[in-house]
């Protein structure tokens, strides 16, 4: 079946002031699947990750070493990593397969499976910190400190996530100063990169610009920041473009728009990687991703989940 891609669309039309290249941090196998009620067999997860790598994605967040009762879908991280050995061998250092670790127990499990990159995940709000980590914001940072230190000493790269940067389903608006304070605390622990999460997707471009300006004013430039938008209110692409205009070059997204967070009501799918790549391709920004192969992968995964992909680009390209 021929698609608009076969016709050479999207036509290239660059905009001034945008980066030449964007690194996509693919979160489908982790953020995407963690909220799915259908349990996906571990072999299917491994194939999903291999297909994402084959489509050109070079950072694929693979799993979480959290308490299995908290996120049952990801309880098979120990079984998954050995199945990823062939794809890890095929792409070598080019392919990053990070995993979430909340605490030292999680780090120990990740280290035992040769994971080379981990992420801790904090919250800008107290309510979500309690619900997601069973701790206050300050206690979570204390929990992360030895994780980041030990991981760094072991030669791992550590990413910090910060949730609820643009709105919280229990507390409402979140002060920019609070987001910057907790975000900088995560960087000060030794995280190499900070991903700013719009966990419930309520943020709009003016907020994104204001937050990035405040980080810059406090001495944190866009080179250490990533953006992580959920698309609940259809704002993710507009917010992403705003972040790119402010110098951010790392964007989180999820193949097929899978996703959500089991501990934040009203969090739906992440920005779909296909929708993102369509926009970036149109802007002439290099991602290394083969959109046709990626859309086919998401259509295949939608079959396993028993429902169509919420991504507009996947639907347009595969129907
Ligand atoms: P807790 O109950 O306070 O843990 O949970 P604890 O330290 O009191 O330990 C209780 C028991 O759990 C102990 O076992 C520990 O060994 C065990 P016992 O001694 O009673 O037999 N335990 C573990 N077992 C396996 N792996 C571990 C682990 N840790 C403790 N790592 C905890 C605290 C952090 C563990 C829990 O709250 C948890 O697992 N939370 C994870 C929640 C989660 O994964 N949420 C989704 C990811 S965040 C997200 O999606 C947002 C993001 O996408 C960005 C955005 O969108 O904003 C990143
Ligand atoms: Mg998320």
TrEMBL record:
UniProt entry keywords in alphabetical sequence: Lyase, Metal-binding
Residues spanning the membrane: none
InterPro entries the record matches: Aldolase_TIM, HMGL, PYR_CT
Recorded superkingdom: Bacteria
Pfam families, per database record: HMGL-like
An example molecular function term from Gene Ontology annotations: lyase activity
CDD domains: DRE_TIM_HMGL
Extent of the signal sequence: none
Every Pyruvate carboxyltransferase domain range: 22-295
Similarity comment: Belongs to the HMG-CoA lyase family.
Identification of the protein by name: Hydroxymethylglutaryl-CoA lyase
Protein source organism: Streptacidiphilus monticola
């Amino acid at each position: 079946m021929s698609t608009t891609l076969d016709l050479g669309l999207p036509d290239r039309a660059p905009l001034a002031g945008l980066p030449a290249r964007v690194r996509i941090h693919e979160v489908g196998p982790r953020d995407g699947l963690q909220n799915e009620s259908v349990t996906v067999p571990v072999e299917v997860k491994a194939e999903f990750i291999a297909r994402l790598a084959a489509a050109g994605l070079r950072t694929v967040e693979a799993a979480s070493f959290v308490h299995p009762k908290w996120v049952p879908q990801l309880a098979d991280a120990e079984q998954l990593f050995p199945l990823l050995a062939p794809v890890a061998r095929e792409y070598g250092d080019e392919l990053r397969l990070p995993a979430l670790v909340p605490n030292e127990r999680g780090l120990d499990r990740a280290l035992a499976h040769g994971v080379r990159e981990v992420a801790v995940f904090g919250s800008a709000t107290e309510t979500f910190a309690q619900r997601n980590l069973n701790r206050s914001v300050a206690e979570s940072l204390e929990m992360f400190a030895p994780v980041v230190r030990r991981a760094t000493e072991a030669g791992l790269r550590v990413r910090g996530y910060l949730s609820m940067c643009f709105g919280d389903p229990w507390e409402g608006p979140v002060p920019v100063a609070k987001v910057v304070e907790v975000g900088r605390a995560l960087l000060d622990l030794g995280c190499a990169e900070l991903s700013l999460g719009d966990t419930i997707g309520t943020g709009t471009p003016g907020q994104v610009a204001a937050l990035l300006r405040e980080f810059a004013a406090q001495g944190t430039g866009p080179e250490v920041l990533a953006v992580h938008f959920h698309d609940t209110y259809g704002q993710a692409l507009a917010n992403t473009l705003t972040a790119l205009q402010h110098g951010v070059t790392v964007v989180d997204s999820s193949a097929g728009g899978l996703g959500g967070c089991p501990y934040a009501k009203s969090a739906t799918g992440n920005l779909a990687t296909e929708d993102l790549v369509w926009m970036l391709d149109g802007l002439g920004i290099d991602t290394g991703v083969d959109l046709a192969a990626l859309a086919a992968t998401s259509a295949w995964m939608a079959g396993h989940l028993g429902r169509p992909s919420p991504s507009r680009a996947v639907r347009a390209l595969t129907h």
